[in-house]
Amino acid sequence: MLEELLSEPLFWKIALALLAPLLFWLGFRRWRLARLIDDTPTSRVRSAAQGYVELSGRARLTVGTNVLSPLSRRPCVWWRFRIERKRRSGKNTQWETVNQGISELPFLLVDETGECLVKPQGAEVYPGDRAVWYGAMPWPAGPPDASGFFGGRLMADYRYTEHRIYEHERIDVIGAFRSVGGIAGVDREAAVAELLRQWKQDQPSLLAGFDADRDGVLSQREWERARAAACRSVDAGTLVPAEPQLHVLTKPEDDRPFLLAAGGLSQIARRCRWQARCSLAGFVLVVAVLAAWVLG
Q1: Which residues does 216 contact at the CB level (< 8 Å), separation at least 6?
Q2: How would you classify the pairing of strands 259-262 and 124-126?
Q3: Would you state the torsion angle of the CA atoms of residues 213, 219, 222, 227, taken in this order, to the nearest 10 degrees?
Q4: Rounded CA separation 33/256 (Å)
Q5: Per DSSP, what are the bridge partners of residue 182?
Q6: Do the beta carbons of residue 34 and residue 269 sit within 8 Å?
Q7: What DSSP designation does 237 have?
Q8: Helical spans, DSSP H, in the chain
Q9: What is the rounded radius of gyration, in angstroms, for the C-alpha atoms of the chain?
Q10: Residue environment code for 129-158, b if the CB has 16+ CB neighbours within 10 A, otherwise e
Q11: In whole angstroms, what is the distance from residue 246 CA to residue 239 CA?
């Protein structure tokens, strides 16, 4: 049945007609991703604008966090793994995924101006380290050098793949940047009310500062002047301590990419351009074959 289908010219015409738009879409998507990486300037954590930015720095664990990759048990800040089981069907061998996982724990990106908390959920990650090894058990006994005799590919029933990003490794991230805390994070009305409450506890100073007619009681107009002064103090940030700023980088709410790469995004852009050229060249070739087939 399959041999008859493959020998049918109509089957190949339909297959090529479906392949052409797929190749064009893949090429356009990879080229667009390369352009986005090239066109997004790298910012510093302290001076980054709120919104869609690119940051570059070193990966660091958050305080009190100890992350180990699941398969090899190696320290890292991020991991992804896959376990596959060998399936034999006659002379053919296929690998079927039986277990997989990905880290979603936040970690820090640190540059010379500050640090930013990276939440990797939903990111397209290009890790710097990849390990593949083989074994006889559904879960490996340890890293590749601990697999022993059953680590050989020919005799193994399971294949283990693990990707990791290590602490202090250089990373580039493009995503949605926002800052929490600081002067902008203070509830202005609550801060003004608190400051006025403190002033009320020191009535002599309050009256000395705002009792213009010296009758010992603040009138409505005098109280408004005191409140205006409290607002100015809060806005100036001189009397209300600001909370330390926390910078966070997450997946954008729109459809723009969330990218995380170890070693730099520039090489990812080069790879995307090469993939785009190959896909678009394939599209042209498929269209040429179809045109020759139809017109011939």
Answers
A1: 207
A2: parallel
A3: 160
A4: 10
A5: 243
A6: yes
A7: T
A8: 2-6, 9-39, 188-200, 203-210, 220-236, 266-295
A9: 30
A10: bebebbbbeeebeebbeebeeebeeeebeb
A11: 21
Q: Rounded to the nearest 10 degrees, what angle do helices 203-210 and 188-200 cross at?
A: 110
Q: State both tokens at 220.
A: 């409505």
- 105 half-sphere exposure, CB direction, 13 A CA radius: 20
- Catalogue the long-range contacts made by 64-70 (C-beta closer than 8 Å, 24 or more residues apart): 65/105, 65/107, 67/103, 67/105, 67/107, 69/162, 69/164, 70/101, 70/162
**Both tokens assigned to 18:** 């479906």
Q: Is the whole model's pTM more than 0.70, yes or no?
A: no
Per-residue pLDDT of the chain (296 residues; tens, 9 = 90+): 545 555 666 666 777 778 778 888 878 788 787 888 888 888 999 889 899 999 999 999 998 888 999 999 999 999 999 999 998 877 788 899 999 999 999 999 999 999 999 999 999 999 989 999 998 899 998 777 654 444 466 678 899 999 999 999 999 999 999 988 654 444 566 677 777 777 777 777 777 888 777 777 777 777 778 888 888 877 776 444 445 578 999 999 988 999 999 987 877 778 778 888 888 888 788 788 777 777 76
